[in-house]
Amino acid sequence: KLAGCTLFITGASRGIGKAIALKAAKDGANIVIAAKTAEPHPTLPGTIYTAAEEIEAAGGKALPCIVNVREEEQIISAVEKAVKTFGGIDILVNNASAISLTGTLETATKKVNLMMDVNVRGTYLTSKACLPHLRKSKNPHILNLSPPMNLNPVWFKNHCAYTISKYGMSMCVLGMAEEFKGEVAVNALWPKTAIHTAAMDMLGGAGIEKQCRKTDILADAAYCILTKPKSFTGNFIIDEVLLREEGVKDFDVYAIAPGHPLIPDFFLDVETDTTAVKQEGYGGAQVFKGEKTESTPAKPSGPVAETFRVIQGAMTEENVKSTQGIFQFELSGDGGGTWYIDLKTKGGSAGFGKPAAAADVVMSMSSADFVKMFTGKLKPTMAFMTGKLRIKGNMALAMKLEKMLTQLNSKL
Fold first, then answer.
1. Active site residues per annotation
2. Which compartment or compartments is the protein found in (predicted)?
3. Which residue of 82, 163, 188, 326 has the fewest CB atoms within a 10 Å radius of its CB?
């Protein structure tokens, strides 16, 4: 279906961008690899040239272009080269993205600039440069790898700058879909679950891949969108839901470790199950179900109590000496209530109720997720990233507790 079509893909040297490129290459498409990695990176796989070799081997034609989307001249130069080489541009995929999952006070200005420059400004300028050529195509598409705009504050509070930058990409979909209606289709695509990429390895650490899907699921979903008529526009699409509608039944093929629990991706409340949410569905009038705040009267029994009993038994003077922090847990659900771990007072202690001294860190989560976290089934970092864990207080101490957890996991 995409034979002879020219796709301009930002960040296509690896990960999701490359997966979309390879899927289109199988049809015999022309791929412009607009990415900045020309020399091998010390830790990240692939360059624009190795990606070009894979695309050619898959049956496509490749044009590697050194493009840092922060530099408008590089974007314009690559667009001109693409038009000169392939005669036009039919599809733009805005995939290049920067991420820093840090709170407002912890996000360095250069990181804020990077995310705004790459995610919002880069998407806007690349779209602007490609649009005159896209308008000449028979079935032009712009596809942004960005989420539905969910105004639930939980998605803003832990990484405000990143959320603003990703929603900036989604706002480009919102505006351009209306502005170019009837001429160019403009849509957004976002994964339902975490996708295994080099970025995910950096965020989640070793072993995180078991809780992720392969990039293939996004490549298949992107292919479905890009082969639809240009009248299909202004949609915020979730990969799994679209593929179910297209008749896909076996999602194990996309799992890195079939049968293993998957991490839900950002910006999707658990109830979200819409394929193509139209922009009218978003805005100030949107109602959120909110986070569950009801808490069951705590009974010191069951899995939570057992977990604290083991923690108490496993504590050492060394843990207390190396951590020097008091942690309070506000748990909802079965066995919920207030619990604590004191790793500051000589000997250390853990149990039900408030700690004897003021807590340095207060963590709020469901009791079920707490048990998963303390038994190694849920990484604290991922629990925090996905909004399952809320932390108030000293973040450095919270990270120290995570270190101790890895030592305790064998006993829990």
1. 162
2. Mitochondrion; Peroxisome
3. 163
